[in-house]
Structure to design on (269 residues):
């Protein structure tokens, strides 16, 4: 019996809807199909219903996710060939209870006017039998000057474990890595695989700007999640797959990111 659920953690924005909605739904359906989960085809309707319930009546119906909702700012190369400051609008803050020492949890939203002005964190889980649960909560952006401190975990990912390619509630290895550092010591923790190759953070994909104008990100064959933001950047030719070393990370400009938060400037500690 399967003892885990699939997860999609998304960002809803006023006037836009759920950012990268189609990519989130595509990943959910792909993982459900490969792992034998039922119910993924109902996710879009359930998301629309959940957000309609969370928002106050003053928010126009057009803000619901059933149409569009895939807009996001894109980075571009500067005249020097490196990725420019257009990454800044993607930066979104972590929520209380989600970063250091915290699982991918969520609180049921209260329907206050705050939701008409602020983005929402939307978390969907899909059980093997097709049961869907959705929670929402508000969050606020980080300052554009934010730089995350990223530590390297002793815990290692197994590149042969194909379940790592799917976002699930089976997060023991990530929680173990996060637990190696107190919250005050690091904002995110980077995991390597058994070969010592950098893979991903506990809740983020890994990107490096090496000055070429195209971000580099590890292949999923290293043992990592096919992140939605990662997929979008690769499809837009803003990033390409390349095996990385810790030396690459120290010699380039490091970014960590996911679809909820966007890209966040980072540095190894």
């Amino acid at each position: 019996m399967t003892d885990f659920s699939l997860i999609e953690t998304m960002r809803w924005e006023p006037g836009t809807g759920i950012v990268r909605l189609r990519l989130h739904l595509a990943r959910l359906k792909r993982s459900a199909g490969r792992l034998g989960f039922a119910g993924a085809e109902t996710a879009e309707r359930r998301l629309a219903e959940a957000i309609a319930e969370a928002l106050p009546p003053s928010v126009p119906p057009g803000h619901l996710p059933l149409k569009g909702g895939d807009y996001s700012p894109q980075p571009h190369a500067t005249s020097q060939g490196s990725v420019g400051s257009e990454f800044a609008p993607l930066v979104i803050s972590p929520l209380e209870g989600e970063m250091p020492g915290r699982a991918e949890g969520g609180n049921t939203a209260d329907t206050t006017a705050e939701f008409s002005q602020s983005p929402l964190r939307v978390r969907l889980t899909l059980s093997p039998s097709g049961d869907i649960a959705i929670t929402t909560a508000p969050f606020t952006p980080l300052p554009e000057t934010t730089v995350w401190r990223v530590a390297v975990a002793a815990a290692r990912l197994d590149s042969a474990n194909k379940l790592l390619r799917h976002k699930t509630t089976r997060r023991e290895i990530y929680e173990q890595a996060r637990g190696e550092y107190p919250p005050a010591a690091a904002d995110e923790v980077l995991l390597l695989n058994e070969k010592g190759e950098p893979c991903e953070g506990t809740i983020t994909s890994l990107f490096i700007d090496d000055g070429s104008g195209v971000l580099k990100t590890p292949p999923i064959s290293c043992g990592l999640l096919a992140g939605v933001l990662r997929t979008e950047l690769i499809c837009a030719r803003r990033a390409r797959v390349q095996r990385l070393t810790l030396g690459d990370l120290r010699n380039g400009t490091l970014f960590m990111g996911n679809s909820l938060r966007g890209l966040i400037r980072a540095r190894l500690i």
User: Anything to note?
Assistant: The longest strand covers residues 148-157.
